[in-house]
Amino acid sequence: MDPAERRRLLVRAAMRAAGFRSLAGVTTDDVAREGGVSRAAVLKYFPDRDAIVSAVLDEVERSVREQVARVRASTDDAVRLLVNLAVAYGATLERGFDYASIMLSWSTLHRQPRIAERLARIFLDFVALADETIRLGIRQKKIPPDIDIELAAWTFVGYFSTIASAKQFGRPPEWIYHLQIALLRNLFGSDAVDRVLTGAPAAALTSKRSKARTRR
User: Fold this and answer.
1) In angstroms, what is the C-alpha Rg of the chain?
2) Contact of 99 with 60, CB cutoff 8 Å
């Protein structure tokens, strides 16, 4: 097998092992067992546990960045982008729950600061993306202007933990999709989200306070 392909398969084995056992506890033997190879074969590519952990973190970060890039390239509509990010994440859980397991474990790794700090950076970068996209949605007049942007960005990213938990506890994909939409409606308003879901023409949204002033 080509060395690059062999390494890729071993990284996937390390992902599975880390998702099952935790990133802090994964060992060379775990990777060998998951990959169906000898311990020596693993050591050829990853000489110690730190190398395994680094490779897993590289894979998590690569996956997140590629998924975000694909979704961002698909639309310039801020609300559609947020909806697509959520739905794409749900689809990722069906293909491989290991990524979510690793990301969800970052707050428990306080005794492994190097791991926790890197996972936290990925998390915070995603919060920054959500913040930027919400601001774009306000400028596009597709998200109510009175929303608390920082709170909304953190809440949006926090929803991903809720979705992952639903998957972990055996909820089916259709149920998870409806949960995602319900959470997004709760955060950004039904008008904003349903416009995207129904493909209705874009319409400027005003805040409740603005509507109240208009009625008066």
Assistant:
1) 20
2) yes
Contact by Cβ (8 Å): 7, 52: no
Counting every residue written for the chain, the total comes to: 216
pTM listed for this prediction: 0.79
Would you say 34 and 13 are in contact if contact means Cβ atoms under 8 Å apart?
A: yes
Condensed to tens digits (0 to 9), the pLDDT of residues 109-152 reads 667 777 778 878 888 999 999 999 999 999 999 999 999 999 99
Q: What angle do CA 65, 80, 190 make, to 5 degrees?
A: 130
Q: What is the dihedral of CA 171, 173, 174, 177, to 10 degrees?
A: 100
Please report, as a single letter, which amino acid is at residue 109: L
Element at 121 (helix H, strand E): helix 113-139
d(CA 113, CA 101): 18
